[in-house]
Amino acid sequence: MTRFLASVGRTVLSALAMVGSVALFALETVSHLLRPPFYWREFWQALIQIGWLSLPVVGLTAFFTGGALALQIFAGGSRYGAEAVVPSIVAIGMVRELGPVLGGLMVAARVASSIAAEIGTMKVTEQIDALVTLSTNPMKYLTLPRVLAATLAVPVLVAVGDSVGIFGGYLVGVNRLGFNGAVYLKNTVDFLEQWDVVSGLFKGAAFGFIVATMGCYHGMNSGRGAQGVGRATKSAVVSASVLIFAANYILTELFFAA
Amino acid sequence: MIELRDIHKTFGSNHVLRGVNLTVPKGSSMVIIGGSGTGKSVTLKCILGLVTPDQGQIFVSGQNVEDVSRDPFLARFGMLFQGAALFDSLPVWQNVAFRLMRGALKRPKAEAREIAIEKLRRVGLKPEVADKFPAELSGGMQKRVGLARAIAADPEIIFFDEPTTGLDPIMSGVINDLIREIVTEMGATALTITHDMTSVRAIADNVAMLHDGVVKWTGPVNDMDTSGDPYVDQFIHGRAEGPIAAVR
């Protein structure tokens, strides 16, 4: 019994230490925003890597999700004779929840893993030490540009994902479910409120911050060798995904709880 | 001059440094020898501030390293890492000119490139190499690029971490000769860690034998063979029998 309690205690302490360590890491990253120098070249490169190159995967995910959502809502709504709600529910579902969450998860899979692997490899091959000896702070040079780029790029990806997802729903609605195109669009536009869209973009920014922070944190704390980098990559994706779901719930409570 | 006084460092239960005392005179070339895991790299990292000692003091040119401003302090150093530690995402010339493209030593891009090409030439690499990426180079060429980066800003102190590890004997000889030439030419203080006795004889003015977290012997390289120290004798002759356990 004592051994079991000790084991639980160790796990809890270790989890708390990890939370504290991630929080300090995130705070230090943000604090570098206020302290020059800022590495613009690394920021632009990160913006292209995280934003531009994630467009296809986010767009495709949103397109098929929008289409599937239209089919599901039509099937469910038809039980109550409420098929007409398809355009409005697809729109609200995409912009409030599915656009930000799926966009965030796809970016987590693509970007958190790549950041953790890149920085982890740099650590293992002493490139991080080399940066320090060359009077360059790794947090400023590696972490801040990536975190800032992800925080700014993911809302844009979410906006694109929202539009593509709604378009996917529109295509299925018009071509498969027999909706009139003009009516479908009118229902979508009439039903959506500005806050529906803006709240999703705020979520996107939060998810972008989480994804890049977890990628950088696990990369910087990577263990030795290929196994260490592999473990860092896996931890980055898993922790970023779980934190996205947790943050999504908290933000939804903040934004929409009555 | 670099001076280490009673440096201790522990990682978990592993007491790596147990009171290292070492003096490297200005303008001289000191080589630290010792088996794997004896704390040679940790000693270098303590001087650079990459690892914080648990106890003891380190002085560089009479200044305690804890009291100095980090950036100007590090600008006095150049370092060649064991695996070269070149930045994969940057072409060779930007690796070499890294320090010259940012921070206090920043120069215009064209000038930084010119200096990088000059330093590449100094280590025996052609200007065509400048625009290649590190992954396109052989191990020996990467080491030379690492050496060019270490000397790019004309540092007062240069550290070499296992400069010939993984290289064939001919390339090792080339790197050893380059290090000796460059250190003499620049008048820099050099601190090298290596297992390679050919390197020791080619590079060192003085040698320090590190074992079990302390300096067991230190003296001029010419006295190394007649030191009478059983640790040094076993190490330089590569004997399995002696005070250094073969299985560590």
Automatic annotation (TrEMBL), chain A:
InterPro entries: ABC_MlaE_roteobac (IPR003453), Permease_MalE (IPR030802). It comes from Donghicola mangrovi. One of its GO terms (cellular component) is ATP-binding cassette (ABC) transporter complex. Keywords: Cell inner membrane, Cell membrane, Membrane, Transmembrane, Transmembrane helix, Transport. The keyword Transport applies. This is ABC transporter permease. It is a multi-pass membrane protein. It is found in: Cell inner membrane; Membrane. The chain crosses the membrane at residues 12-34, 46-71, 147-172, 201-220, 232-251. Could be part of an ABC transporter complex. GO terms for molecular function: phospholipid transporter activity. Its main location: membrane. Pfam families: MlaE. Belongs to the MlaE permease family.
UniProtKB/TrEMBL annotation, chain B:
InterPro entries: AAA+_ATPase (IPR003593), ABC_transporter-like_ATP-bd (IPR003439), ABC_transporter-like_CS (IPR017871), P-loop_NTPase (IPR027417). Signal peptide: none annotated. It comes from the Bacteria. One of its GO terms (molecular function) is ATP hydrolysis activity. SMART domains: AAA. SUPFAM superfamilies: P-loop containing nucleoside triphosphate hydrolases. Pfam families: ABC_tran. Keywords: ATP-binding, Nucleotide-binding, Transport. Residues 2-237 form the ABC transporter domain. PANTHER family: PROTEIN TRIGALACTOSYLDIACYLGLYCEROL 3, CHLOROPLASTIC. This is ATP-binding cassette domain-containing protein. It comes from Donghicola mangrovi.
